[in-house]
Amino acid sequence: NGATPGLVTAFNVQCYAGGSSNTPGPWIKAVQTAMGSGFDAKGFVLPGLWCSNGFECTDGQDPASIGATFKKWKPSGIQGGWIWLLDDVYKCEDPARTLSAKTYAGAILGGLS
To answer: How far apart are CA 55 and CA 86, in angstroms?
Structure first.
């Protein structure tokens, strides 16, 4: 950021599978320490979760679970997040189970509101 300010606009933190022990708080603190007090680390660190996936779409997290996780993380000050993996969102899309890109996005927004 010192050489090219604003070139990197976010830091995506994997909070599923091999990164399942990650939470936004320690990452925000580390980025804030590295970048200094004038940097918005809370807006820079974006945690990601894995949507429903697997053979019968029973692995991962459904929108309700994702919303609850983001609600738990809200006190850290995060301002957004992301879902892995769009292919799984489409593969597991099911209106009866409210699994869609729109419901995952709503779950993140709802958890942070």
So the answer is: 16
